[in-house]
Design brief:
Elements lengths: L3 E7 L18 E3 L9 E4 L4 E13 L2 E7 L15 E6 L5 E6 L1 E5 L4 E7 L5 H8 L5 E5 L3 E4 L6 E6 L4 H10 L5 E8 L14 E7 L9 H9 L7 E8 H14 L7 E7 L13
Parallel strand pairs: 12-13, 12-15, 13-14, 15-16
Antiparallel strand pairs: 1-14, 2-3, 3-11, 4-5, 4-10, 5-9, 6-7, 6-10, 8-9
């Protein structure tokens, strides 16, 4: 498949929910370096497991399902960052469970609903469960164990990723305040996998189309990123994709485009050829 590039300018929308604030609760520990105003804050949460019930199943496209969960166990659930991850425990035929990490796409404390988007692959316990999930079915989750809070001191954001990063990218777009600007650069399999977001800030979306077997090839996104116009001011770059892709794009931004490493976060959400693997790209 020959990669295809598309650009979309999204005008301002009214966001449908407000980002959550950090509550003052016992048992939470915030670790902040005091010497810099724009230092990233890390907050730890008390770990516990929750048994949830499927309320709705929505097909966002051929390769993404959105599942809305509910249940009394969500009463004290908190997710403070689009970077958060919860563990979902999928039952196996042997009677055990396999755990996978997912981003809380949205939590509504008034309704007691937790939304999680599932990127569908060819195989695996998570994809099998998400494809066959039915209303009333139950699933156990754990976490998030912590939140990484990036301060609101940046004029613009550049969010780069693939299908696995879309839940975090969509949430970040919708939670960014109106006085900031967001650009997204996302690789998906086709136009039917592109998403629309309800944002309160100006958003510029760049979509790259490629086949699933090209998802671990850095050059497809790198070609667009290398010439992508960046706005003036102070910006933060967030990258999540296959580990080799994320590392290459991180190096491109810092070495070729001169972006500060202190205003960039990159992660390998998956590793090609390895099941249930990820890479934090610490070096």
């Amino acid at each position: 498949m020959t990669p295809h590039f598309r650009y979309q300018l999204v005008s301002e929308y009214q966001v449908s929910f407000e980002p959550q604030l950090v509550p003052d609760r016992p048992g939470w520990q915030a670790f902040v370096e005091p010497h810099m105003q724009d230092e990233i804050k890390r907050i730890r949460h008390e770990l516990r497991q929750r048994r949830l019930t499927v309320l709705r199943v929505i097909a966002l496209g051929p390769h993404m399902h959105r599942i809305v969960f509910g249940g009394d166990d969500l009463a004290d659930f908190t997710s403070l960052s689009p970077d958060d991850h919860v563990k979902l425990f999928f039952p196996t035929v042997s009677g055990g469970a396999e755990a996978r990490d997912y981003t809380p796409r949205h939590y509504d404390p008034q309704l007691g609903n937790l939304t999680i988007d599932f990127a569908l692959h060819e195989a695996g316990p998570a994809t099998h469960w998400a494809r066959n999930a039915r209303i009333g079915e139950q699933l156990v989750i754990g976490g998030p164990k912590g939140s990484v809070i990036i301060p609101d001191v940046y004029d613009w954001w550049l969010l780069i990723g693939d299908e696995t990063a879309l839940p975090s990218i969509g949430r970040r777009v919708e939670e960014t305040p109106s006085h900031r600007q967001v650009m997204t650069l996302v690789a998906v399999q086709g136009p039917e996998d592109e998403q629309q977001w309800k944002a309160q800030c100006p958003v510029q979306s760049y979509w790259v189309h490629r086949s699933a077997d090209q998802a671990d090839q850095p050059d497809i996104l790198a070609k667009v990123l290398r010439s992508l116009p960046l706005p003036p001011g102070k910006g933060f770059v967030w990258i999540a994709a296959e580990a080799r892709v994320a590392r290459a794009l991180r190096d491109l931004m810092t070495q070729e485009r001169g972006h500060s490493v202190t205003a960039l976060k990159a992660a390998g959400y998956w590793v090609s050829g390895q099941a249930d693997s990820h890479d934090k790209l610490d070096h």
